[in-house]
């Protein structure tokens, strides 16, 4: 008899497994349908010996010292600030758009103050910002929207930005200075020996057992357990009772080259050309010294493993119906990107898992046998 069955060995499941095993001294079984732990953050040494990410680049960044300190129990860190270039009009320019981006693209010599006015002259008036298109054209105008956002978004989501919630493009800032870092968080680091090693340490406890290549539907009635933490797709948990929640997927083409470097930064985006959205080169991220290099081409897809919830109002309405079912399901906690149908960064998932553990502690004093009505982890929980 396990005290907990945890579905998914990614950030949500692994953080909670470690907390429950060490802080509550309870027995945990973690299952995952894949053949590895660490979820989409899984990294590995390929045949050439290059440390690479099977599911595309994962760069850790956070403003939360609590989250950073928590993960620091399981890894040392390598300082790394991610930089991205975009191939626009045949040249590479910084993304997010900054002072150097505009000056290089238009052969100008604007100052930061002049760039603010330059943006203002091109910005379109939008009475109410509802869509991703509204966000961009109201800040920088239609020409930069077409160059940087529209094509990339249509490839990534299979939808025009005018059809997507404003949250999609609101994630990417526009700067008037020369800061070319993709993220500006206080803590920007990579696990020194990789994500997989960090997860191994997190799950290395006698109270934790791990079963890979195991589907929840196949074992939920076979393995005795008292409670469940579920980080898979919420619609799948309920056998798609109200229909499937839409997700976007990705296909990855990994290529190892007989050269030391391929590109000047970790990621180059292709908003206007190519079928793929971006190329990433892992040695920039890991700092590995190797005579060869491995790169990954990313191709968005409608079919495949679910990666990104599609942010449209009707999809949120469908999720709310599943969320109502989840809240009425006893002894099951729903945690993670797929179970809460929101796009969260890695640090946000860790925060959500830690907040869920605090709620578990409040609802179930250690060793208690009382039932608990499940609660879908909310975005408010992350802020706490």
Features:
7-stranded mixed beta sheet, 384 residues, disordered C terminus, 17 strands, 5-stranded parallel beta sheet, EC 5.4.99.9, globular, 34% helix, Rossmann fold, flavoprotein, FAD, alpha/beta, flavin adenine dinucleotide binding
Descriptive notes:
This protein is of the alpha/beta class. Among the domains are: 2-37 and 203-244 and 310-383, NAD(P)-binding Rossmann-like Domain (Rossmann fold, 3-Layer(aba) Sandwich); 95-170, no CATH class. It is 34% helix and 21% strand. It has 15 helices and 17 strands. The chain has helices at 11-23, 65-71, 99-106, 112-122, 132-140, 142-157, 167-170, 195-202, 216-219, 234-237, 282-286, 313-327, 337-340, 346-363, 379-383, and strands spanning 2-7, 28-32, 43-45, 51-53, 60-62, 77-79, 84-88, 91-95, 187-191, 208-212, 225-230, 247-257, 267-269, 278-281, 293-301, 308-309, 332-334. Strands 8-7-13-14-15-12-16 form a seven-stranded mixed β-sheet. It has a five-stranded parallel β-sheet with strand order 10-2-1-11-17, with helices on one face. It has a three-stranded antiparallel β-sheet with strand order 5-9-6. Strand 1, helix 1 and strand 2 (28-32) form a beta-alpha-beta unit. It is globular and about 70 Å long. Mean pLDDT is 94; it is low at 368-375 and 378-384. It is an enzyme of class 5 (isomerase). Keywords: FAD, Flavoprotein, Isomerase. This is UDP-galactopyranose mutase.
């Amino acid at each position: 008899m396990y005290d907990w069955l945890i579905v998914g060995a990614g950030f949500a499941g692994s953080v909670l497994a470690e907390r429950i095993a060490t802080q509550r001294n309870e027995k945990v079984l973690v299952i995952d349908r894949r053949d590895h732990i660490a979820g989409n953050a899984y990294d590995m040494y390929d045949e050439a010996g290059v440390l690479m990410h099977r599911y595309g680049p994962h760069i850790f960044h956070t403003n939360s010292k609590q989250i950073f300190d928590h993960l620091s129990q399981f890894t040392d860190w390598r300082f790394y600030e991610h930089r991205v270039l975009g191939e626009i009009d045949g040249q590479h320019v910084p993304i997010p758009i900054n002072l150097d981006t505009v000056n290089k693209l238009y052969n100008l010599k604007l100052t930061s103050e002049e760039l603010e006015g330059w943006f203002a002259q091109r910005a379109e008036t939008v009475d109410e910002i509802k869509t991703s298109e509204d966000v961009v054209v109201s800040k920088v105008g239609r020409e930069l929207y077409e160059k940087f956002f529209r094509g990339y978004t249509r490839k990534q989501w299979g939808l025009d930005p005018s059809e997507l919630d404003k949250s999609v493009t609101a994630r990417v800032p526009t700067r008037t200075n020369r800061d070319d870092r993709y993220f500006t968080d206080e803590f920007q680091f990579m696990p020194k020996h990789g994500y997989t090693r960090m997860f191994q340490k997190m799950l290395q406890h006698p109270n934790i057992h791990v079963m890979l290549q195991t589907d929840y539907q196949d074992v939920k009635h076979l393995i005795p357990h008292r409670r469940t933490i579920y980080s898979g797709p919420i619609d799948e948990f309920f056998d798609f009772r109200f229909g499937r929640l839409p997700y976007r997927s990705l296909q990855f083409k990994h290529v190892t080259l007989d050269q030391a470097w391929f590109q000047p930064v970790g990621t180059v985006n292709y908003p206007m050309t190519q079928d793929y959205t971006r190329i990433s080169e892992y040695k920039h991220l890991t700092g590995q010294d190797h005579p060869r290099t491995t790169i990954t081409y990313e191709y968005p897809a409608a079919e495949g493993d679910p990666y990104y919830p599609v942010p449209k109002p009707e999809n949120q309405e469908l999720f709310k119906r599943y969320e109502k079912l989840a809240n009425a399901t006893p002894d099951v906690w729903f945690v993670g990107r797929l179970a809460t149908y929101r796009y969260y960064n890695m640090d946000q998932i860790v925060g959500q898992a830690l907040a869920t553990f605090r709620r578990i502690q409040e609802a179930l004093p250690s060793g208690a046998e009382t039932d608990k009505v499940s609660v879908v982890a909310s975005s408010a929980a992350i802020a706490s």
